[in-house]
């Protein structure tokens, strides 16, 4: 009887260790995706709430900053963001996913406000809650010694000329 209890406790401990190891392995597969989605959410919140200081601190390119300098364009962007982001709940209205493999370095080279070198880039896609509308694509950039920031947000997978 004692031998049987010892075996089951060892079996339980090994299974618990296996589950913990598997869980940490799966969470490391994220590779920065949740951080990129989190920054996209913070940016969407700042735009939807018209919080200019917070919004501007998350913008990485001159071109994108220009959009918010024009009150008409800025109002359109705010309205569009409210169509896929709910500021009252702090959540996107559609699903968000990050493409951490997307290399935007060539497009962003020379277009960034900060001159620090680019470490990583990615793209966050937020599906529209309306099936007939294009998704929002957040162009993400992580520069050396800087937090993730947003280089541009496009409706659909558009190309942008940053120069």
Detailed description of the structure:
This protein has 163 residues and is of the alpha+beta class. The chain has two domains: 1-30; 32-155. It is 45% helix and 20% strand. The chain has six helices and six strands. The strands form two sheets. Strands 3-4-5-6 form a four-stranded antiparallel beta sheet, covered by helices on one side. Strands 1-2 form a two-stranded antiparallel sheet. The radius of gyration is 21 Å and the shape is globular. Residues 19-28 have low confidence and may be disordered.
Largest sheet: 4 strands, antiparallel
What global shape is seen? globular
Which percent bin holds the helix content?
40-55%
Overall number of structural domains: 2
Strand content: 15-25%
Please report the distance between the alpha carbons of the first and last residues.
Answer: 77 Å
Topology pattern, helix = H, strand = E = HHHHHEEEHEEE
**Total E-strand runs:** 6
User: Can you tell me the residue ranges where pLDDT is under 50 for at least 5 consecutive residues?
Assistant: 19-28
- pLDDT averaged over residues: 86
- Provide the structure class: alpha+beta
Supply Rg.
21 Å
Count of discrete alpha- or pi-helical segments spanning 4 or more residues:
6
Query: Largest beta sheet: what is the strand line-up?
Result: 3-4-5-6
